[in-house]
Amino acid sequence: MKNIIILLSFVAFTLSAKAQIATSVTSPNGKLKIEVNADKQLKYSVIDNGNTLIKESVADLVMTGKKDGKFTAASKQKLVKETTDAPLYKMASVSDEYNQIVLKNSNGMSVELRAYNSGVAYRWITSNKGEWTIDNEVADFNFADDYPAYMAYSTNEKNPKAMAFQATYEIAPLSQSKDLEAFLPITVDCGSAKVTILESDVEAYPGIFVKGKGQSAKSEFAKYPKAFDFYPWRVQKYVTENEPYIAKGKGARNFPWRVMVVTHDDTEMPTNTLVYSLASPNRIGKDLSWIKPGKVAWDWWNDWGVSEVSFKAGINQDTYKYYIDFAAKNGLEYIILDEGWYDPKSGDMLTVINDINLPALVEYGKRKNVGIILWTVFNVLDSQLDEACEKYAAMGIKGFKVDFLDRFDQEGVEMIYRIADRCAKSKLMLDYHGIFPPAGINRTYPNVINFESVFGMEEVKWTQRFKGTKNGKQVDEPEQDMPKYDVTFPYIRMMAGYVDFTPGGMRNATAADFQPVYNNPMTMGTRCHQLAHYIVHDSPLTMLADNPTIYMKEKECTDFICSLPTVYDEMRCIKGKMGEYIVIARRQGNDWYVAGETSWDARDIELSSDFLPVGTYEITAFMDGVNAEKNASDYQTFSMTAYLGHDPRERITVHLASGGGFAAKLIKQ
Questions:
Q1: Which residue of the set 96, 137, 140, 403 is catalytic?
Q2: Residue 68: what pLDDT?
Q3: Per annotation, catalytic residue among 458, 481, 538, 546
Q4: Which residues contact 332 (CB under 8 A, 6 or more apart)?
Q5: What fold is seen in the domain 2-278?
Q6: Residues 369-389 pLDDT 10s
Q7: Is 403 annotated as catalytic?
Q8: Is 170 one of the catalytic residues?
């Protein structure tokens, strides 16, 4: 009898083992692999060059009322090669090569897994035709050790999932992370490689937040909204009550991609394209000629602070005509009318304040070849969507800067897609602010030409100085370290997509001199640090944040900024280390644009011309002045013609002052 029991137990174990699917998908170069074990639940591991980075992590989609099924089959590994046009993106086209497999489940669900040379990704797919509700999704990332993580935490501790998605990165082992939600992307330094967690194709579904726990980053999602209220100042809609579930829908669909980018050198990070590659294709048609990137003379950061004029500066006709004149004189494509052109307390963007004659202003700009973009609040535009698009497109408005979404639930995501789709029909461009990081919508709707979700220049207007003890030392310094953030987020946040950092401040300050000033704000770091932003950042629509009066006095720097493209054919990170410094090179046609930035630590960097095609170049360069350590506005410039790219031994050493930078354009002759 004992032998029979043992035999039956062995048979049962064998049948159970056969029911479990164990498979893997490997990158085309054979170095990166995602291993899967699946029965009722899917668990995966990510192995890089034989090193386990992520181990036995659960991926699960919990549907209301649906019994757990079993994974029944796995497809054979399939190699896919594709090249995609990438209008307005960091490069003109994106080439991909990956292997994929699909696991099917008996409950109508399946999981698609892909392995690229630069990362891995998976997504859930449902073939169910009826209505469905998702109670929760489990997307855990269990790392092989307690590695340091770069986390951008919520700025709202009382309601962490409601915020503007603007925070610097805090670095600590996962086990020592805050008991607070962080938003993506986050980067985990595994020693042999870095893993950056992102998502793509987030549509009609909430986005991921994560919390560190032990050696893991655990996913959390905003619940589906149930009730709302409005903040009176801007009639901004916010959630007051939630349903118990995270998402609902009907019919077959693909869910968002969970993406893990694996990099071995920091210079690989800013150029990664997986979020774009995994997004849904363009839905607005082949004719994108009406989507015109460019630069903007912007009013808000400088607090409408023009001076030396005969009129009272403010939100009025004369001030905006002055901005248009400045834009026209310097070849800028746009001005923005930021908050105040309609009464924000009214929640009515169809009614313009009395101090502005908008049709006349549009006509004035049209005569000078300067377009106008209007600021508004997400839910205000959404509530008047058809009327606003019809009225302002007919008037000649070029697009909207849309602000204060401050949420990442399913309804909020649906709103941004609805707005993008309707605006595309009226040929209106969009700059999204107060919003979660981009997750592929700029591929699906190329009329979305910038995103905030970055700790940008506006933050210096209210960053206070800290006086006290840090690490046993007495310090007197800015509370926020902007130069360090400036050489961190291009590695992490720019993987997700565009950044509307709003650069261009002409009042520049050292760490010792910086003070928060609201009306006439200054920047942290040098003048050349500001110039470098225009090349380092992915920003098809970028701001000149300071006021026209100052720019006209700083003509040399202004001319340089205005001469730079905002869209390029190619991008490379030719040198850098996250949190320390970065050097980006971009190509448009045969011309190259190169810029670098450093943290508060001054440094010398050695650059080679080996990335350049051989030829003669007319070079214009701006570098930190010899006195930039004391006077951050100090810079030096030179122009010369040189034959470059023929000798890989060619080197030039560039000195970057504390908080410094450099910027150069190399025009092929």
A1: 403
A2: 73
A3: 458
A4: 294, 295, 296, 297, 326, 370, 544, 562
A5: Beta-galactosidase; Chain A, domain 5 (2.70.98)
A6: 999 999 999 999 999 999 999
A7: yes
A8: no
